[in-house]
Amino acid sequence: FVAPCEGWRSRSSLSVSRGVKRPFSRQHVRISNDNYLWTLAFSTHPHLGSPPSPPAQTRLPLVLLHGFGGGVGLWAQNLDCLSNSGPVYALDLLGFGRSSRPQFRSDPEGAEELFVEALEEWREKVGLEELVLLGHNLGGYLSAAYTLRYPQRVKHLLLVEPWGFPARPDNPHHSSIPVWIRAMGAVMSPFNPLAGLRLAGPLGPMLVQTIRSDFKQKYSSVFEDNTASDYIYHLNAQTPSGETAFRNMTIPYGWAKRPMLERIGQVQADIPVSFIYGSRSSIDSDSGFAFKKTRPDVEIRVIRGAGHYVFADQPDDFNQTVLQILTRTEKTGNNNTQGLRPSVDTEGPNP
């Protein structure tokens, strides 16, 4: 890490620990070539001081992959609830957050492969045989890519506002990535999408607070100050490793060079696939419904009042939705894990 990282490690840990009550471990999981993935692991053991509860059958591990420019801290409002009935792992993608920042291959296929193989090495080191994979934004794209490469490991694929599914439309300015990233990418191209944050120097945190003023509101139940936006800044003030890989995987402005919608149909039919969208998102749900036309069993959930960061905009509804999906996955596998009924709608594509 470069020098600024030392100043935000405690803030990074604080951003998670202030949002959860359940015990968890955190460590760098070492993989090949001196790389490592920063990992938070939540077990099924009850929190100290909480009333005893009847023993529950172990649920399949849930693995959370954040999106472009994100990190594990953004799940602060979800980890406690999601880990209440089973193990949860959240990790910083290779090249992002507190994970190592190697040099990726410049071709999109090579960059994608390094992301996917890092995740597979992580799985082996952690010792997970099977898992439920949930990815947001870029994490959704990589979750689908991992499922295509290692189908025997994934019992359910959950795609939350996934990036990189449709091919570039005739109108290249069509919404495909969050507006704030797209706007910055437009003025910084051909530089890395978030280069402006680093060029801003000491004004970087203020820049994020201005561009992403909504983040303070999204995490107001956890933080009363600018911790969330400061966290976003420090995540992206480091060496742009994963960010450079993302740039090499895209064409202006943020469209995938290798659209996942052209490959997602190859996911094995016995692996359930669910999409979760926000009703107010800048990313529409057309891709999910396009896939559903070829695979009718695909589930699409639209959470009312949520934008692209569904899990932060409406954390309770998001958590309930995921728990219900997990419950159904376990029932399919003859497991009696109980879930909760979310207050959400299943709707057509966003206008």
Automatic annotation (TrEMBL):
Comp. bias intervals (Polar residues): 329-340
Q: Which reaction does it catalyse?
A: 1-(9Z-octadecenoyl)-sn-glycero-3-phosphate + (5Z,8Z,11Z,14Z)-eicosatetraenoyl-CoA = 1-(9Z)-octadecenoyl-2-(5Z,8Z,11Z,14Z)-eicosatetraenoyl-sn-glycero-3-phosphate + CoA; eicosanoyl-CoA + 1-(9Z-octadecenoyl)-sn-glycero-3-phosphate = 1-(9Z)-octadecenoyl-2-eicosanoyl-sn-glycero-3-phosphate + CoA; 1-hexadecanoyl-sn-glycero-3-phosphate + (9Z)-octadecenoyl-CoA = 1-hexadecanoyl-2-(9Z-octadecenoyl)-sn-glycero-3-phosphate + CoA; a 1-acyl-sn-glycero-3-phosphate + an acyl-CoA = a 1,2-diacyl-sn-glycero-3-phosphate + CoA
| Subcellular location per the Swiss-Prot or TrEMBL entry | Cytoplasm; Lipid droplet
Which positions fall inside the AB hydrolase-1 domain?
61-314
Q: Write out the GO cellular component annotations.
A: lipid droplet; mitochondrion
Q: Which UniProt keywords apply?
A: Acyltransferase, Cytoplasm, Differentiation, Fatty acid metabolism, Lipid biosynthesis, Lipid droplet, Lipid metabolism, Phospholipid biosynthesis, Phospholipid metabolism, Transferase
**Entry GO MF terms:** 1-acylglycerol-3-phosphate O-acyltransferase activity; carboxylic ester hydrolase activity
GO BP, sorted A to Z: cell differentiation; fatty acid metabolic process; lipid homeostasis; negative regulation of triglyceride storage; phosphatidic acid biosynthetic process; positive regulation of triglyceride catabolic process
Q: Where is this region: Disordered?
A: 329-351
**EC number of the protein:** 2.3.1.51
Q: Which family does it belong to?
A: Belongs to the peptidase S33 family. ABHD4/ABHD5 subfamily.
Question: What is this protein called in UniProt?
Answer: 1-acylglycerol-3-phosphate O-acyltransferase ABHD5
What lineage is this protein's organism placed in? Eukaryota, Metazoa, Chordata, Craniata, Vertebrata
